[in-house]
Amino acid sequence: MTAAAPTAPTHTNLARPGGLLTDLRSVALRALRLTMREPEAVLPALIIPLFFFVVNVGALQQFVEASAPPGFSYKAFQLPLAIITAVTGVSRASSLVVDIQDGYFDRLLLTPIRRISLLLGLMVADFVLVVVLTIPVLILGFVLGVRFETGPLGVLVFILLSGFWGLVFTGFPYAIALKTGNPAAVNSSFLLFFPFVFLTTAFLPKEALTGWLAAIATVNPVTYMLAALRSLILVGWDWTAIGQSVVAIAVMGAVSMPLAFAALRGRLKRG
Amino acid sequence: MTETLTDLAIKADGLVRRFGDKVAVAGVDLKVAPGEIYGFLGPNGAGKSTTVRMLVTLIAPSEGRAEVAGYDVVTQPGQVRLRIGVALQDAALDPKQTGRELLDLQGRLYGMAESVRRTRLEQLAELVDIGDALDDRIATYSGGMKRRLDLAAALIHEPSVLFLDEPTTGLDPLSRQMVWEEVRRLNAQGVTIFLTTQYLEEADELANRVGIIADGRLVAEGPPEVLKRSIGSDVVLVKVVGDPAAVPDALRALPDVERVDVRGDTVVISVTDGAKAVSPVAVAIDGCGVTVANLSLRTPTLDDVFLELTGGHLQGEDR
Questions:
Q1: Which strands make up the sheet holding B63-68, listed edge to edge?
Q2: Complex ipTM, two decimals?
Q3: Could you tell me whether strands B192-197 and B161-165 are parallel, antiparallel, or unpaired per DSSP bridges?
Q4: Considering only CB atoms, which chain B residues are within 8 Å of A17?
Q5: Which residue did the predictor score with more confidence, A90 or A155?
Q6: Contact assignment for B88 to A103 by CB distance below 8 Å
Q7: Is B141 part of any domain?
């Protein structure tokens, strides 16, 4: 239902709703442009996993491979951890808080933009960024001799699974950003990263973990992400492992996304 | 008034906004006709910005309702947003984008095709008057440039109702003059303008009608001339040396005097006929044990109106 049109102003009005795809594209392109403009904000997300990868492999490769079945490659085992480390927690949440504080978020809200695209558009940008981040890590792996049992298609699935994992994880920092509007709170959201990435099969297979850690690892979705990513490199097409990682992504998304979008609704309501 | 609801550019009925226990806006009624420049005048914290934020769909009223450009701000916010342009207090810009990127993104979000955006950007670049800086990051802009860019962002889609929240606060006189000229030019094209300000001069210069807000309530409304005339036709200002405590009583006894206020060492006397009142006033003050340091006669300002209505002053006024 639309109300009767008001008396036409002498002025012509150029505005019309842009459509969801246009809105998403506009928000995502701005986010990506600004990301490229401040690579220093993303660089740590790339350097830290590369560093850990090299150090872990250097320190533990011989030790682990000595007690492992013949042909086991610790480099191949560690590469997925490096990728998960790179993609977990990368988001535009800090910039979103800056937009809120600068009032630019209000300027966007004053346009007919579909409200959902303000968040979804950022997530689209995050997904692109996360996929881009996996590439240098993968290249380092290839240089160091890691080969995929599943071939090029396996590499693609590997990148997509990593990308979607990174995407669902962004829900947490966005929820905090929209709920608090506080940069410090958003910065401390990276703490979430530690239990997820370390209370799991980060360094050793699950069989080798001690009891309490094994128990936590069983409920940690990252365990299933690592298992699927490792299987793509080391084993071949293990559909059970891949299926479990998809469930892990879905469960994580089912928790994080409602939090993020509820926080968006809350902020819009408070004004 | 004969207008029906939808004939008005802005109509508010009993707008209330509470933040927790604090009442920021305590029941504001507004009627702004298409093509009007309406000045919303009040000191800091009076509720100007909160009222604007309700009218532009950023926050919902706690009570009451409002229509802007013929649509309800709560139930039809999308329709309202298509028709309004808004420049909020403290230019709301993204320092990391260039001026051109910001305007182009703005155009995209208003659903404007690329060719339309390009044309509009050219027109607005002239208005913004920042030359090649349009391709620089906004972080490098001066305060005046940011305000002008913000105004351009508000105008990109040629809105029919323009909200300007303290558009010249913090601007140098030259930039202020430029904003005023632009406001008049837009208004001449038929754009309705709702302008908040804490500057009397600005309301006086620009507005066809002024609403004065204090403590979340509209305390007076009307054309500036009418409001000023309501408190007497002239004001005599007397700067004295000594304690002016006894002065008001002495002056109130005079026939032409309508009102006396003491502001620091200055006595403000509203009179019906300034020329006739000057000498009796001077003589009366002389008899109060103070010396007249300076005496001047002027017509009333909106600050005098505000003082009369609220007992307070508009802050940040031009003195």
A1: B22-32, B10-19, B63-68, B71-72
A2: 0.84
A3: parallel
A4: 78, 82, 111
A5: A155
A6: yes
A7: yes
